[in-house]
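Changelog note: in this version the structure field was regenerated for every chain. One regenerated record is shown below for reference.
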Amino acid sequence: MAERSFEHEVRKLRLGAGEVFRGEGVLAVTKALLQSGVAYVGGYQGAPISHLMDVLCDAREVLDELGVHFESSASEAAAAAMLAASVNYPLRGAVTWKSTVGTNVASDALANVASSGVRGGALIIVGEDYGEGSSIMQERSHAFAMKSQIWLLDPRPNTESIVAAVAHGFELSEASNTPVMLELRIRACHLYGRFAAGDNRRPAFSLRQAMENPQRDTERIVLPPASFLHEREKISARWPAAVKFIEDNALNEFLGGGDGEIGLIVQGGLYNTLIRALELMGLSDSFGGARLPIYVLNVTYPLVPGEVERFCRDKKAVLLLEEGQPAFLEQAIDSLLRKAGLPARLLGKELLPLAGEYTHEVVKEGLRAFLGAHAPHLLDAAPLSVRSAEEAPSLNAPARPPGFCTGCPERPLFTAIRLLEREMGSFHVSCDIGCHLFSILPPFNIGNTTMGYGLGWAGAAAFNTDSDKRTISIMGDGGFWHNGLTSGVGNAVFNRNDNVLVVIDNNYSAATGGQDLLSSRARGGIRSLGHSIEAAVRGIGVRWLRTVNIFDLKRVLAALRKALTTEESGPKVIVARGECQLNRQRRMGPLLAKQQKSGARIVRQRFFVDSETCTGDHACIRLSGCPSLTIRPNPNPLKEDPVAYVDNTCVGCGHCGEVAHAAVLCPSFTRVDLIFNPGLFDRAVGRFRGALIGRLQKRAERRRAARAA
């Protein structure tokens, strides 16, 4: 097993009333779920909510004691469909995934459960990945919440507010018979804090009770005429109930200074950023003591008209901080103000960026423009910055594009493609979501499109036509089991696709943190593993199939060349196996350390470059891109080109040497076996080799001295 152990975090889940929970925001959510009497939890891993899944997976004993069912779902769609349990029964259920990509996958099930409505509380926890550090398309969950009428919570980024949002989310869902979405930005997921824990609660109504007393209500099934009634019910009953619950329970907050002619409205998730910007301007302290009145929208959908009107009634101007576009909140609040006949001017996107992440620097500039126009006396009294301009960091930071880890088994595949392109010209390469997406960046510069998780082959489906070339599609084992088997492989078989797919079998869902998959080769545990990718591919109808060790560059090259040139028609699949090195280190590190401490003989391989032999060609770097490969000055004063150098982060995969030999015969790469706890034979061989090398070195020195004389 290589999955990370969360034994320490699991112990925190047992904390009871009167004790203090300390940890990350996303871990606080796991505790809040158990305190809320959740009956079932499902989800699909992905940043920034993977830890929620991982902790619950390790907490089987705690969950069993409480009667909570947990599943690592096959996809976000499978997780969302679990919420069907809350349609007919008073069962509290929660599902989680990375948004917005996960929400897109889950959209069919979500739209149906939002139409049916729920009896039990249904909570959807999405990791909102918006901003400069995001790895996905820049979209917001807000649009989906509005489309399907799912209430959207965006709590202030502190653990107390997040835990309260989980409890309120279930209550709001039950009060309005509507699913609720809890949006957690990356910073909120990974912030550290503490809160007063409560006792864990068993579900008030259990899954077993539901199974033994089945309920059927045809009005909750999305079929006409019920589906039309659902739409009317959303407006006539569910929406008013939600607004009343939000207002009665003060889910939104009025913070900051007292009354004034100007005010700020902010999404809850941006509250900390706003306070930091105000602090830098001298208008707040670090603890939220702002001099300006602030209306915090911990619920961004639906809005509460009465609260908006009450906050804006005595204001001449209000600045709305809404991250991302379109400006859903700005349009809605402006409409409420105009309908209420209030004179307050609402400003937002004209002073703040239309799109992109609202960092404290961005917010500070927007506040400066707002105050300059509507409250210059506050601006005049405020310091420009806590630090002087000379102390401010430079904004010209060097670009640091993401890349493959040291020893990544995916790197040899893209080296092979680059080498084949020298022979056959360039190919159209359809990429997929996962680590292999980094092939699009230097040094490989491979890849034309990416369409979604498991959609690598489907992304090249249009090119199933007569041509002198074939396309290459890439898919990881995670994407393969998530969506690729049906949408990619099944689609290709059905349509007699004549192109090539490479499935990279890392043995884990490497990109999301090393979780086990159907094809993982671990033993034991509570899940069924060890299911062959090859068997699944053959079972769906693929005839041309090859399996290669991805670190064997020659075999990878040969398999690709054959797939691209064979006269055999039909879909062609190559399964390239190579364990994710990060997970291998996690799995093997403790084991090797234990063996070494016990005195067992251990051999570890390392590679180095002979500086005197290296020509400075650097094909090893250009065609592998391994972070452990760098350059250093040439020790030969007659040569100007720097030589290649392997640093101590090398994990001994050997790919750099294979690349050098495949690109140009290179004698400068050498493998060294490091032997820990050597035996008598190892010591004897070491003494013999040392003596022989010493004699050869002395002979070489005598020859050099003779030539010099």
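Spot check on this record: The chain has 25 helices and 24 strands. Residues 155 and 298 are 5 Å apart (CA to CA).
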